[in-house]
Design goal:
Blueprint: H1 2-33, H2 46-58, H3 65-68, E1 72-73, E2 81-92, E3 98-108, E4 113-114, H4 117-128, E5 131-132, H5 134-149, E6 153-162, H6 163-166, E7 176-184, H7 189-200
Parallel strand pairs: 2-5
Antiparallel strand pairs: 1-4, 2-3, 3-6, 6-7
Helix pairs in contact: 1-2, 4-5
The protein binds zinc ion.
The site of zinc ion (ZN) has 5 residues, from loops.
Amino acid sequence: MKKEGKRKNQQKERTSDMKKKKLEEITRELLKEIGYDCRREELKRTPERVASMLEEIFSNNKKDLKKIVNVYKTNTTDEVILIKNIPFFSFCAHHLLPFLGKIHIAYIPHEGIITGFSNFITIVKVITRRLQLQESLTDEIADTIVNILKPEGVMVIVEARHLCIEMRGEKPSTTEVLTSTARGTMKNENIKSQVMLQLKK
Ligand SMILES: [Zn+2]
């Protein structure tokens, strides 16, 4: 059994080494195509750095959040819980450039079922470290919270700057894109505007 385990580990290491080598090769090719020679001093280790960076950034994005986020019961009823200004960065699925900003999550627990604030940061971190579009990211966070907490309602608001908008085109611009989505009782216009008011404070 032990030998079997060792062999599996070795195999895993080999696959990961091969994957990293492949990423390095692709980066070298990409740089070559846009006119850069990786033999240049400052570029010598760039393919290796990019490969490690990509592995690091995208390594945790398949984590099963249902297994990580633990919930517990409290006496909270009908109360809107708002977690404001969770910082994030993600990658635009259309251009592979970062978009970044902050995320606000408001929810009304069902029968007092809640989770720690840090778990919302974990949810944001895992979901944003994927290739995303801002709209689908907003929905995905809301659906994940519905799935894990089964709340009465949830609202997710994402404010972001997109480097693919800002870096391209004639004039540099700092457009901010705002997306929001609501589920359950949070769809109520009154509750929604209460949350928006809280956010402006
Ligand atoms: Zn884009």
